[in-house]
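Regression report. Comparing outputs from two consecutive submissions.

Submission 1:
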Amino acid sequence: MAVAASASKPAGNTGSIAIIGLLFFIFGFVTWLNGPLISFAKLAFDVSEALAFLIPSAFYISYFCLALPASWVLRRTGMKKGMALGLFVMAVGAVVFGHYTTLRVYPGAVAGVFAIGAGLAILQTAANPYISILGPIESAAQRIAVMGICNKTAGILAPLLIGTFVMHGMGDLAAEVAGADAAARETLLAEFAARVHTPYMAMAGLLALLAVGIVFSPLPEIRPEDANAAAAGGSARRGLLQFPHVWLGALCIFVYVGVEVMAGDAIGIYGQGFDLPLDQTKFFTSFTLGAMLVGYLVGLVAIPRFISQERYLSLSAVLGVLLALGAFLTHGYVSVGFIAALGFANAMMWPAIFPLAIRGLGRLTETGSALLVMGIAGGAVIPQLFAVLKQHYDFQLVFAALVVPCYLYILYYARRGHRAGLD
């Protein structure tokens, strides 16, 4: 049954919000495994730091490659079956990653990560507009904040679990590998790499079961052309080129995801730049995600009760600039603390940017959503630039030089860009 979400009562949406919240928990758990996996790949596959960053790069570039095809798929399947398909593709990717990592075949492992990202691209292209238009678009940031709490709670758990059960004793192992002969080195690394097999096979099975569960769940099938039409004349316009706020929003998502991944996934490598212990840096992603969780809780209370999502986005961007400069001007654990605190500044950016960018798209909502999800490729490009440039320049300077301009563009979008073509 198709429903016009804007007419739905909040109480009637509680079950649907809970189911989508579970999906966002899965987003978070899978996405924020990438940070610890950078250090894992560097040791397990004996590759350079730049090559280890192919883990998040492959993950996030898959969004760019798959988001637009995902929108075409969703128009045929509907959002509900599309979400189930995304979960199944993720399950396949988890099998591929677990298998090839156990064999220590790095291209195969990277392909598995790409497949997991492809499934998430389908899932996110459906779930983000779904939760945005499940109620009034003006309060979408509040609903997405609830999703963010689910997402970041999982994100906190993911590095802790993989650090405890897969990467335990990593510092000692690295020292042992460094002093071993060639045969012993290969044995040690093969045993270390094989630790991911059981967790990823279990994850694949769970994702496949959830895919079946979504198909038979009570989620209503929402028609975007009814639920998100024409606050700005969306139904009367013919194509996305007539909605400049969407294109500017896609760039905003690009830079936002870039800085989010820099603060979350790259924080461990950033900490290693100060020669902090490997057995500590593997947990640093959880600190960033903890700060993001606090940011979501604040946003959930504040938006739209005390402040608009546009105004909150502006303040978050300014805070991001200040924290990035604080990280540049300090050293050691204090500097790492500033990087982790960027999680608080980043928390409410996606919840604010996404509904602002799809406002009024009507029948173009799936395509507009796909364009925005393509912007997630910023998580591949900006951290990879960090990994390459830090080999030639001071890593703190490189970090600041990459993220500060991103936050300034987010500030522009919050103040003016989201209104382009709508005034």
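Submission 2:
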Amino acid sequence: MKKLLIFCIFLLSFQSVFAQLNFLPKFIRQMYFRKDTSRKPGFVLLPALSSAPETGVEFGGAALFSFYTDTLDRGTRVSSLFGYSTLTTKGQVKLSLNANYWTPQNKLHYTGVISFYNYPFNFYGVGNNTKTADEKHTGEKRYKLGFAGEKRLGDNFYVGVVAGVIKYFYPYSYDYSSILYSPAVQDRHGGASAYIGPSFTFDTRNNNTYTTKGMIISSYYNIMHGTYGNNGYRGGFFNIEYSQFFLLAKQLVLGLDIQEQSLTGGRSPFYLLPQMGSDEMMRGYYQGRYRDRNYIAGQTELRYRIDKRFGIVGFVGTGEVFHSAFSTDQLKPNYGGGVRYFFDIEKGLAIRMDYGVGQKPAGEKRESGLYVALGQSF
């Protein structure tokens, strides 16, 4: 049974009627139909409800608090606090708090995350051609604390540092025939690591929430060292992403996005391997269905702003994971489309819903996924 996800957006297609007739309570109108252009702080809450046999009923929601550190300078970017929390009737939980802080005139940029997941997931093995028949359902506990800080040098260049700790735990399994006991799966019971490293960003975007022109190239390298019972682990994680935006017409934007990730070092803990699939890149693939030491993907998205409140997008992309050798023959496709509702017009903040489609492996159903999230995909 596929997981059913429902986000209540209060019948947005009738927003003009509700706004004129004051049909909805004031706090709901303020969250979803905000017209204020005074650069004041904003808050939005999205309830979530889902159901699956392995979790029972899952309920909770996401909340976003947005603000400017300088309300007079029009160039200062939007800062935000984003929280997500759900609980299932079988005692599973997701808790996450993310901060994104820009100082006045964007001289410093800080991000932070603290999260705890105790939630099941499906593991398919390591490599670019895993099979649905090998699916192993298992639980995961994950603790993460991360921080990044960058200082602007010149007009568009930022240099900084990333640091944090992360711990994964997986229950012991006595099914030695499962994919978890494949020789390619290292550190199958989890482990803890601390990391620190440099970050570099080149950013010419005209806006960080709804970009219509400019580019951003961001990269970091995490130097990782095992902790607690994982003291023997030494490795690293490299990430680089390039995005560029072109204003084709007044309401039409073309976005390009390319990302590469690599795990370095002699060992390959399966939980640290780059993973294909998310609500931002390679939409349509279950996150972690394909994972390996290297990952590269690219996408292009055409965004049309129908009016101040609504927009539609179409996207197409491709990507793959690989151990050491990249092959164009192994690239997997994805494509799809979605809608956008801008609940805060002044800040360019939107709720998005996308449907992505991936490949159809031989003898299996075509891969696909529905995504509801806050903000743009990139």
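Expected: both submissions complete independently.
Actual: both completed, but the second showed a warning that disappeared on reload.
Relevant detail on submission 2: The first strand starts at residue 4 and ends at 7.
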